[in-house]
Design brief:
28% of the residues lie in helices and 22% in strands. By secondary structure, it is of the alpha/beta class. The strands form two sheets. Strands 1, 11, 12, 13, 14, 15, 16 and 17 form an eight-stranded mixed beta sheet that branches. It has an eight-stranded parallel beta barrel with strand order 2-3-4-5-6-8-9-10, surrounded by five helices. The two termini are 19 Å apart. Bound molecules: ligand LLP. Specifically catalyzes the decarboxylation of meso-diaminopimelate (meso-DAP) to L-lysine. Pathway: Amino-acid biosynthesis; L-lysine biosynthesis via DAP pathway; L-lysine from DL-2,6-diaminopimelate: step 1/1.
Length: 392
């Protein structure tokens, strides 16, 4: 039975395989991954990741609540964010999560007050801004001095002075996150160098850290997803093995989001009209920036495929959504001759796709379909390309 478009389609087998590849790339028993829930918070995605033994990296009280409701152990939950509300801190502290990653000296005072109310000791990691260029899109760069995130390295001493004043805070770790969609691994090596300096400074002040959290950020191949459905986790973890100086018993935490879920999700849409414009032919589809905002927000490229046509001869199309904004475009691409009713597949949409959707223009939100519930071929009412579709 065909499914109403647009909808998100998730390949759970690919998700499992990605998780498996990630785990087998970890050679160090002290390396631990917390999945960044912000990338995709659909129930079965989270359950699959939890069942694989990962922890949860949360950025809101609701993410913490959802993680706990789905069975993540609070011991495996970390919480970051520069603007945590009192209610959110309350949720974090009352559930005794593993680490509150504190982003300012001012926040320390508030966390202490709330922990005191609960008669608890809050486990703290300092999120430090390492001033390392992630060499990625400026809108998803987070670890430079000009960015709002983290405690500047120059304030580290003052932050230590402050935390030592508070009885309800325990400094357990440090946290860094330099940005997202990072494909060149050198910035991670630079991060390790800065982290080593921070760890040494804290050690010199008599502070022994239990964990070093190096954030997330590993990128995926948007241009040619089929050439690399699973990111190169080995190379990624090797950088930290090689460059991070650790003391006995210290654990390293990673917060991967996109690299785990990016390729397992696609946005499926139908062509409403093919219209001849003055300069190009528009394929107007029923998915738009309300379903996937990355192209509008970051000029991001997502590969678009026509699932209904098999012809070898390609023509240029400008694939656009129905929303009343010129930024509502999925870009110009070559497709076989496309007609009304064709199904289009927007690839690599598993991360920061559905979570960032809105109901602008009072549009309905796209449904969620999982591969073990219905095959993609049956979702689009065609068994014709079933074999090729199942690999996605
Ligand atoms: N940890 C922290 C503190 C973060 O801020 C993020 C992402 C992550 C971990 C996970 O990073 P990942 O492994 O997924 O790169 N909406 C943008 C991406 C924003 C990323 C925000 N922070 C996009 O669609 O490209």
């Amino acid at each position: 039975m065909s499914v109403k478009t647009p909808f998100y389609y998730y390949d759970l087998t690919l998700l499992e395989n990605t998780l498996e590849a990630m785990s087998s790339a970890i050679n160090n028993p002290n390396f631990k991954v917390h999945y960044a829930i912000k990338a995709n918070a659909e129930d079965r995605i989270l359950q699959t990741i939890k069942n694989h033994g990962l922890g949860a990296d949360c950025v809101s009280g609701n993410e913490i609540k959802k993680a706990i409701a789905l069975g993540f152990n609070p011991e495996n939950i970390v919480f970051a964010g520069i603007g945590k509300s009192d209610e959110e801190l309350d949720i974090a502290i009352s559930n005794g999560i593993h680490s509150i990653n504190c982003e300012s000296i001012e926040e320390l005072v508030v966390i202490n007050e709330i922990a005191e109310k609960h008669d608890a000791i809050a486990n703290i990691a300092f999120r430090i801004n390492p001033n390392v260029d992630a060499q990625t899109h400026h809108k998803i760069t987070t670890g430079l001095n000009e960015n709002k995130f983290g405690i500047p390295i120059t304030e580290l001493d003052a932050a230590v002075d402050e935390i030592l004043k508070h009885k309800h805070l325990a400094l357990k770790g440090v946290h860094f996150h330099i940005g997202s969609q990072i494909l060149n691994l050198n910035p991670f090596a630079n991060l390790c160098q800065q982290a080593n300096n921070v760890i040494a400074n804290l050690k010199a002040r008599g502070i022994a850290l239990e964990h070093i959290n190096v954030g997330g950020g590993l990128g995926i191949n948007y241009n040619n997803p089929d050439s690399q459905l699973i990111p190169n986790f080995e190379e990624y973890f090797k950088v930290f093995e090689k460059f991070l100086n650790l003391d006995e018993g210290q654990t390293v935490h990673f917060e991967l989001g996109r690299s785990i879920v990016g390729q397992c999700g696609s946005l499926i849409s139908k062509v409403l009209y093919v219209k001849k414009g003055a300069n190009s032919k528009f394929a107007i589809i029923d998915a738009g920036m309300t379903d996937l905002i990355r192209p509008a927000l970051y000029n991001a490229y997502h590969k678009v495929e026509n699932l209904s046509q098999t012809g070898d001869e390609l023509e240029p199309y400008h694939v656009v959504g129905p929303i009343c904004e010129s930024s509502d475009t999925f870009g110009k691409t070559e497709l076989p001759t496309t007609t009304r009713g064709d199904y289009m597949m927007i690839r690599s949409a598993g991360a920061y796709g559905q979570v960032l959707s809105s109901n602008y223009n009072l549009r309905e939100r796209a449904a969620t379909i999982y591969s073990d519930e219905q095959s993609l071929a049956s979702c689009i009412g065609s068994e014709k390309k079933a074999q090729t579709l199942e690999v996605v």
